[in-house]
Amino acid sequence: MRRRVIYSLTLWSLTWTGILPAWSNQINGYVLNPSSEERISNVEIAFYVQQNEQVSEIMRKKTDDEGRFSFSGPFLTVGTPFALAAFYEDVTYFSSTLDVGAQKQVILEVYDPTDQPDALRIVSHNLFLNVKQNQIEVMHLAQFHNEEERAYVGTGQGSERQVSQFNLPLGALDVQGHSGRMIQIDGTTFFDNQPLLPGHSQLSFSFVLDPTQLTDGYWHESAYPTEQINLFVQPSTMQIDGGDWTDEGVVDLHGQQYRRLNTTDVQAGQRLLVPLPVSPPMRWVLKWAALGGGALAGAFVFVMRKGRPKQPANPEENLVHLRQQTLAEIAQLDAEYAERKDDTTYCKARRQLLDQAVDLTRRLEG
User: DSSP labels for 156-173?
Assistant: First the structure.
């Protein structure tokens, strides 16, 4: 305690006598719109400090008629990490993490907003697929370029703002945004909520897929014109058959090996297939489950009317019968939820039935 008091008195003495500059324990700055080169008045500024790995807001002030702001007080000690945020036109603009006493003033840049996405394009989209037996781990890293001199803010407000659109495969689970919050609109449409400032912005997110839900592979759909998509697949021994992709062989990234493929000049709305290998029994089950044809539906109705018949004496015939019955139930379920494919009850029931069908197929062919 005595050492801290001596340090504080010494710092005050050095500042008072001019050995340390007066701004070492004062934060000064202004808010600027770079497009118009005008300073912006009446903008609310929040001051945050980081202590013990926790970020806390200390106070807020508004800029004066010349767009200036100033923070001072006993909480400003030299070397303390801090950050500022400007709230302008319903968009929050954060500074980087700074240190008290390391700069004379801080310039916070803000932009006029737009909800028109016409000036957006993706310069580079990196797609990582880690194919495992029980799940497929998917990671997206997209570098956007906003050619406007305004910030693209999408629609909505606050944390529910819908900005950058991403179309994910049906059945994407545990969707996590790593640059902002991911907002789900329906079974396949998601939005990141971070405004895109003029120039380059990088967005990333991840999710997992159930491989039993993929009948022919992974479908990627771009919502914006994309200059280049880089595909990285694990395990690196996996062979991806041509199509829209150029195979560049195996590469090493941070000590891990991937098979790298790429494609260029992708149009907005274009769908690209990554033909991941699926075992023949799995492919057969998924194919018939997706058909939901009249024969299977009729078989289901027959079973429901007559009740469950006696089990065949032959164990193999019994498995065949159970598989046919399970596929019929899947077909009936698909018919009932034809207009509600994203219903949680439907998805859960269908997955359980598919698991049963896959297990029966493996037992028959085992």
Answer: S-GGG-B-EEEEPPTT-E
| 192 and 182 Cβ atoms separated by less than 8 Å | yes
Query: Which pLDDT tens digit goes with each residue over 245-282?
Result: 999 999 998 888 999 999 999 999 999 999 887 544 44
Q: Could you check whether 2-110 and 117-274 share the same CATH topology?
A: yes
Report the CATH fold assignment for 2-110. Answer: Immunoglobulin-like (2.60.40)
Q: How is residue 97 written in tokens? A: 């993490």
Residues 6+ apart with CB under 8 A from 291: 331
The two counts, helices (H) then strands (E), for the chain are 5, 23
pTM: 0.66
Using alpha carbons only, give the angle 359, 364, 366 rounded to the nearest 5 degrees.
90
In whole angstroms, give the CA distance from residue 86 to residue 69: 11
d(CA 237, CA 144): 31
**Integer Cα distance of 315 and 17 in angstroms:** 96
- Biggest CA–CA distance in the chain, Å, is 101
What ranges in 293-336 are assigned the alpha helix state H? 294-306, 315-336
Burial class of residue 42 (count of CB atoms within 10 Å of its CB; 0-12, 13-18, 19+): exposed
- What kind of architecture, by CATH, is found in domain 117-274? Sandwich (2.60)
Hey, how many other C-beta atoms are within 10 angstroms of the C-beta on 51?
10
Neighbours of 331 (CB within 10 A): 24
The tens digit of pLDDT for each residue in 193-246 reads: 999 999 999 999 999 998 888 878 899 999 999 999 999 999 988 888 767 899
276 in Cβ contact with 218 (< 8 Å): yes
For the four alpha carbons of 228, 229, 231 and 232, in that order, the dihedral sign comes to positive
Q: How far apart are the first and last CA of the chain?
A: 74
